[in-house]
Design brief:
Elements (H helix, E strand, L loop, with lengths): L9 H11 L3 H15 L4 H37 L3 H34 L5 H7 L3 H25 L2 H4 L2 H4 L2
Helix pairs in contact: 2-3, 4-5, 4-6
Length: 170
């Protein structure tokens, strides 16, 4: 608890979590355990409560991972059955996370710039007051809109039929 003294130092802790691919639940448990340690709870109480919480969250995580694996198996089977589908699928799957990363990164960077440089005005006040929960809802909407548009383009615009037969055989 004493090694992190400034908010920007949390970035490196977040980087470690990202490298370990920890879930939000595990991160929340680590935060609660850290808070418990900082408030003086004995180590055995922290260990017991965190183990109990993890045992309750495992079945839900297993269920969602199974559903996700089944969906991705279907999606990959569809995408790799024809070369043009593979290209289309990869463009959508790659482009969407890039757009999300740009949205979040830009919002965070501009918010930090506005805060540290003490910038004011209509634009900077909007950026400073931006609620990341709202941005999260916009991103979820972006996912739905992207998939709906991709499905509509695929169904209404016969992409497979527009490519010459020679290229489809590759």
């Amino acid at each position: 608890m004493k090694s992190i003294t400034k908010p920007w130092q949390m970035y490196f802790l977040g980087l470690l979590f990202g490298l370990g691919f920890d879930t939000a639940t595990e991160v929340a448990l680590l935060v609660l355990a850290g808070y418990g340690a900082a408030s003086g709870l004995p180590w055995y109480v922290i260990n017991t409560s965190s183990s109990a919480c993890r045992s309750f969250s495992r079945p839900g995580m297993s269920l969602l991972d199974t559903i996700d694996g089944s969906f991705m198996n279907f999606a990959y089977g569809w995408a790799f059955s024809k070369p043009v589908r593979k290209v289309y699928y990869n463009l959508i799957i790659t482009g969407l996370p890039v757009a999300v990363a740009l949205i979040i990164g830009t919002a965070e960077l501009l918010g930090l710039l506005a805060d540290k440089a003490d910038l004011h005005g209509a634009f900077w006040d909007l950026i400073s007051g931006l609620d990341l929960n709202t941005v999260g809802f916009v991103i979820v909407g972006l996912f739905f809109a992207t998939w709906a548009a991709a499905l509509a383009v695929w169904k209404l615009g016969p992409i497979e039929e527009k490519r010459p037969a020679k290229q489809q055989a590759d």
